[in-house]
């Protein structure tokens, strides 16, 4: 969320944090139960706020399309999920790649280097498997199916 939370929500955050710290120190089952209650209440409140925001955007989408598209963009923009990539050059120097396009090129170069084309002539034929017993014809009647269900 990109707006300030009201005092009720902030107090739930503080309670949740305190109870978690207390639980980590004591490992008390009662403290864990209290923590889960506060955590669930906090999550319920934040979901209500998000639902109100969505309803407000929906109500204003005809009169204020910029608000609608801003909300859509906030949900659909992807962020880079790949961290920095360390590479070792031909000269032995280690470099760090942190731009998405350069990361793609680095991975492309790597996979091109390890991929090999193999001819069909190099593969041996798989041995023929002979099944020991043949499967008899399988019959399912309506009564058998109904009985199993």
Keywords:
5 helices; mainly alpha
Provide a descriptive summary of the structure in words.
The protein is mainly alpha-helical and 149 residues long. Among the domains are: 7-76, no CATH class; 85-118, no CATH class. It has five helices and two strands; from the N terminus they run H-H-H-E-E-H-H. The chain has helices at 7-26, 29-60, 65-76, 100-114, 142-148; strands spanning 85-88, 94-97. It has a two-stranded antiparallel sheet. Helix 1 (7-26) runs antiparallel to helix 2 (29-60). The longest helix has 32 residues, at 29-60. The mean pLDDT is 85.
Distance between the termini: 48 Å
- The count of β-strands is 2
Q: Tell me, what's the shape? A: extended
User: What share of the residues lie within helices?
Assistant: 55-70%
Low-confidence stretches: none
How do the strands of the widest beta sheet line up side by side?
A: 1-2
The radius of gyration is 30 Å
Helix and strand string, N-terminal first? HHHEEHH
Please indicate the percent range of residues in DSSP E strands (runs of 2 or more).
5-15%
How many H/I helical runs? 5
């Amino acid at each position: 969320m990109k707006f300030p939370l009201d005092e009720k929500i902030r107090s739930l955050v503080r309670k949740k944090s305190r109870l978690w710290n207390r639980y980590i120190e004591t490992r008390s089952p009662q403290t864990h139960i209290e923590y889960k209650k506060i955590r669930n209440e906090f999550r319920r409140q934040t979901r209500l706020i998000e639902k109100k925001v969505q309803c407000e955007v929906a109500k204003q989408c005809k009169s204020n399309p910029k608000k609608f598209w801003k909300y859509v963009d906030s949900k659909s923009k992807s962020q880079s999920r790949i961290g920095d990539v360390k590479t070792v050059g031909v000269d032995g120097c280690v470099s760090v790649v942190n731009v998405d396009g350069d990361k793609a090129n680095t991975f492309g170069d790597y996979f091109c280097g390890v991929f090999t084309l193999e001819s069909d002539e190099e593969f041996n034929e798989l041995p023929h498997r002979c099944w020991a017993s043949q499967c008899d014809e399988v019959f399912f009647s309506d009564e058998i199916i109904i009985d199993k269900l």
